[in-house]
Amino acid sequence: MTSIDEHTSRLDTHARTALERLFDPHSIAIVGASANPAKRGFQAIRALQQSGYAHPIYPVNPTAPQILGLGAYSSIDRLPYSVDVALIAVPAAAVPDVLRQCAAAGIAGAVVLANGFGEIGEAGAELAAALAAAITETGIRVIGPNTSGLLNVFSGANLVGLEDVPCGPISVITQSGNMLLSLVNDDRAIKGPGFHAYVGLGNQADVRYDECLTEFARDPRTGVVAIHSEGFVDGRSFLVAAAHAVRDKPVAMLRGGRSEVGRRAARSHTGSIAGSDAVATAVLRQAGVELVDRSDELAVVAGAFATCAPIAPGRKVAILSDGGGHATLAADALAARGIELARLGERTQLQLRQLLGDAAAVADPVDVAGATDTDPMVFAKAADILMRDPEVGLVLIIGLYGGYHLRFDPELREIEDVTGDMLLALIAEHGIPLLIQSCYAGFEIANHDRLRAGGIPVLSSIDHAVRVVAALERRGRLLADAAQRSSLVLPPAAPALEGSGLLDEPTGRRVVAAAGIDVGAWAFARTIMDVVAAVAEYERPCALKVVSPQVIHKSDVGGVRLGVVASDAAQHAQAIIDSVHAHVPDAHIDGVIITPMADAGVELLVGATRDPIFGPVVAFGGGGVMVEASRDVAFRAAPFTELEAREMIDETIVSRMLDGYRHLPAVDRHGLARFLVRIGDFVAAHPEILELDLNPVIASSSGFFLADVRIILSENASGDGNE
Question: Model pTM?
Fold first, then answer.
């Protein structure tokens, strides 16, 4: 007889997408179910039953009539039609055929546990290809292979086997089952808010990070998405998904494979390619992802994101401490992260003085100087005063709060409980987030638990508390200017540029100019007499540069002359030819580029590359011959907005020279931002551009002078259409 649950499952398949059914299954088949307690096919059924999964479970085993009280099916084709998810617990070699059988039975998605695919290199490549073919042929959605499984804590759909995961708002995406275990244990240690769902992507043969993030962002039970990544199959799709998701749900990420050693480990672990760390860090932050550097920070930041409001833009942090040492450490840590303390108003300081007494420090950081030792309620009264100050966007309580009844007098417990309720009321009244660092955070203290349940994190580490403050500050800025940020969606490709490989500089300049980007005055001469004529026409000193397909770095072979005037132009042109032939005997010299000498200015690097993971990325920084040594470079994924361009400029050291440093003229920052946006739009619309290098761009009060233009096109670029 068909159960009510089974009937409901059949009905809701018409309304729900395959991914929705996969992430929140209303029926599960265990393919490879076993009566042996040591086998995953047994453990999966037991985990579902112990987790309270209330929907149908269908064991598939060719010989066992019953497993853990459930009637077993001898083959996949005997299952009820259109089961939501199949957990596939069979050897790797059998997986492709099993997927075809599942698809024929109408199963929406599969979780493939087996390893032995792309993560083991060439030995698994053939099997990985067979798996990919089966997925493409059938359209079934697959998590894995080489996955730890899938977990929906709310529904009890526990295909991981991890017991007693606390239910809450954090949804997790990783490529590592151990990372889920770490997150759960870290969350328990800080008594965090708990978890809603988990997806272990494994090798990402089908379902990817961006799809999981989009599904979790739509899920009303998800308050924050925590991610551990060792690499993306389609990094651009993830950026687009993140830029959209973070407007509603915060996203925190810990990345593996950031170093070369780590990248090798990631490839051996999951077959991922981690890519350039500098680029990945920049573009993920651009998309609004909060990146954490340490494994012990992910649960802390994710938990706070799920329960705390962000800091309103323009507002600052007020430290309220019962000890000067802790207050100083917190202030130092905030300053190191660029977080400003509030400049408290005179009225605020006067009220604090009246409350705390003459011994207290009433400028931020506020030190109560013992005023709370006998009356912890003073914390709530002081916090109320601080929250009324228009400069304050977050109050950070530092010290012993919640443990006064342990440190001083058991009679203070009731007062601390009442104080906790007052603090919760203050958040509701003022809408100002509150964060507590307490030496007693690891103790079993009822008032701490009440605070956590009400959305106030209570942490034992000053560093963790400050890390949370930094995350909330960035989130506030992100939400405030979300409308001024790029969606990171690539535009339709423009007609492909002519040529392939490295373009000669005259062609490169014409291409850039055709895109509406001012390249300034320039001429191309094939003879020495043409060089002389061009220099004479400009009526000012000029720069001469050789054009030769065999010469990349022109100055290294004497291929550049500066300050050339008409009277000595022929001599300099001949010297260039002689020097290039001396250094590169087989060089074919096409001619010479002539440009008027630029006004004095700041040498900048503007470039772009097609990152293999994230697509077109623009680089900006200090330019000239020292660019590789200084590495003063910031990155943004293209296309981007003027706001994002201004942020990119501000990240660099060279930006300090743009406002009139010593003898240098002031540079139009807004004009520079618009120039960078146009470069970004250009490379985003031309997927055939592998590399664009404008180095140096000389920025002066009169504009931006492109001293050199270098473009590399893909070998399959053509002039008759789009890629």
Answer: 0.91
